[in-house]
User: Which sequence fits this backbone?
DNA sequence: CGTACTATTGACGCAGATCAAGTTCCGTGG
DNA sequence: CCACGGAACTTGATCTGCGTCAATAGTACG
């Protein structure tokens, strides 16, 4: 049960570096101690000091911020294998709220584990930095989209990114996936109103690129969608070789 | 000359942890090898593989992304002491372009230096993660602002953040600072048109909160500006104690 | 089988984009 | 020292993408 769930996390780390046996066992200590949360539960909230970090083992969650009058911006959707809240230990408090979008299973671990990792497993520590860099790249893409794209482009771009991330963990066979996001959440992720998001989804449907019926989303024309939304790729990065800690660039600077 | 410039970087790291002598000398190896770029020069570009990372020693730079038709989104402004491009080694390529907004001095270092840091100086490696987390927090704030705030709030919020960051490095005495950003750049940072940014600046000026004359910006009423733009703080985090690597939270999770 | 989400549709209004002329501010060279 | 040319900025007029409001209709679940 837990065995299958933590596969996603290890697969994610392994997409960055080839794990050695000792590293696999250390990584396992991050994905032990499973814990469940019901749909709607908050793992932690904006402004709160944080006691633990989590690996999301199964289910979906989202990270969002709110203004004092209630306006909300979804910063990102968290999928199985994603690390949650590791950055909030470094800052004094959580800068965003994380809530479960479906019933979820997470693995909780204490900051002390990260400390040990930095001291004993530098390669795993580097992969933490890598995950962080990846998150930041997603945020940058979203900011570009929200700041400079039309409603049509924003919606399309959002779903293309989601599709690619789900594909990586084998959750979008045949371009179709189960999507527990409501229109309101989608709207809050791309910075527009729910009403307009609804109308824009219909344009996408009518132009035969993307269909959403109930919780099922189907990508109808990926190539066109990527072209018309200026989708640039997932920025996953190259894999790390067996011995190396960081990527050795091909071009050497003086 | 270089001595004074690298103070900012060390001060920044030191705001996270108290550097030990060996750590200071290691950090110095990051700020050696200074190199100059003229205004407008690109350190690296979106899509390019990266050979080096940089510490910005003096001057301003910006990080931005563009869509294929030329629309531009500024992701952030880089100030003295900031780390530039460390994440791009982990991903295959730079996800944004970085250009100099003034003549700048940077210190260039090779990825191998980061590797050594992870192996020999875990506390410094952790501070790298901290800087990354801080960057991500800024990006999240910006996304909230661009996605959910009015033009007035966005402009105000942008300058309040800038003011606080400059204050930390002692570059905004008396609420006044030199700002080499053009209106067009400001507009591209907050996702609006230059014309509207211009009009909005005038509203801020007339309401006696913020004035911008030539390259000089003066914060006239910080408290009101922070309140009306829902500014939440800089998320700098607590300082690390002498022995510890990561923050030990006060509340212990099970 | 009602109560509460979630989504759709239409009407209307406005914040902010776009277009088009200026104007001011420089740095540069004559 | 002044004239010139190009940034950077301002101002006004007009337009439109998207927000807001409001009513309706599925859907899901207890």
Assistant:
């Amino acid at each position: 049960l837990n065995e299958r769930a933590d596969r996603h996390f290890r697969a994610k780390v392994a997409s960055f570096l080839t794990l050695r046996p000792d590293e696999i066992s250390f990584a396992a200590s991050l994905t032990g101690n499973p814990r469940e949360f019901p749909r709607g539960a908050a793992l932690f909230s904006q402004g709160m000091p944080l006691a633990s970090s989590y690996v999301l083992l199964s289910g979906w969650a989202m990270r969002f911020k709110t203004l004092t009058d209630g306006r909300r911006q979804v910063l990102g959707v968290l999928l199985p294998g994603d690390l949650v809240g590791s950055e909030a230990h470094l800052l004094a408090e959580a800068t965003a709220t994380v809530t479960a979008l479906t019933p979820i299973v997470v693995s909780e671990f204490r900051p002390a584990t990260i400390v040990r990792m930095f001291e004993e497993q530098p390669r795993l520590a580097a992969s933490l930095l890598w995950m962080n860099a990846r998150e930041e790249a997603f945020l940058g893409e979203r900011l570009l989209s929200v700041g400079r794209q039309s409603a049509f482009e924003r919606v399309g771009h959002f779903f293309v990114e989601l599709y690619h991330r789900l594909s990586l963990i084998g959750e979008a066979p045949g371009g179709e996936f189960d999507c527990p996001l409501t229109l309101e959440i989608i709207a809050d992720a791309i910075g527009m109103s729910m009403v307009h998001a609804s109308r824009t989804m219909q344009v996408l449907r009518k132009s035969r690129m993307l269909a959403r019926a109930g919780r099922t989303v189907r990508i109808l024309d990926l190539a066109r969608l990527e072209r018309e939304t200026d989708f640039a790729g997932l920025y996953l990065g190259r894999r790390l070789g067996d011995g190396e800690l960081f990527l050795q660039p091909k071009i050497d600077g003086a």
Remarks:
- The first helix of chain A runs from residue 2 to 14.
